Amino acid sequence: MKIAALYDIHGNYPALKEVLKQVKKLSPDLVVLGGDLIAGPMPLETLSLLKRVSTTFKTVGIMGNNDQDIVDIYAKKRVGLS
């Protein structure tokens, strides 16, 4: 079984794009997304790309401390809190 593990992306969309080219070549059986994924300079673009990864490969994710902060921020915006 081939496993690709991606950690500490921190919203770095350009770097993630480059790494995913290599992941695609490897054609892993599983992609592990391990924490601190989207908080950083390009969170929305990074999240969009990670969603595409999850439709291409079997994927499991582990939230990091920065990921929970982002989830909390967006949850507050949805319910109108500041």
TrEMBL record:
Q: Name one Pfam family in it.
A: Metallophos
Q: What InterPro entries does the database record attribute to this sequence?
A: Calcineurin-like_PHP (IPR004843), Metallo-depent_PP-like (IPR029052)
Q: Where is the Calcineurin-like phosphoesterase domain?
A: 1-72
State the SUPFAM superfamilies in the record.
Metallo-dependent phosphatases
The entry lists its GO molecular-function terms as: hydrolase activity
This chain's protein is named: Diadenosine tetraphosphatase-like serine/threonine protein phosphatase
Q: Which organism is it from?
A: Lacticaseibacillus paracasei subsp. paracasei Lpp41
Q: According to the entry, what is the taxonomic lineage of the organism? A: Bacteria, Bacillati, Bacillota, Bacilli, Lactobacillales
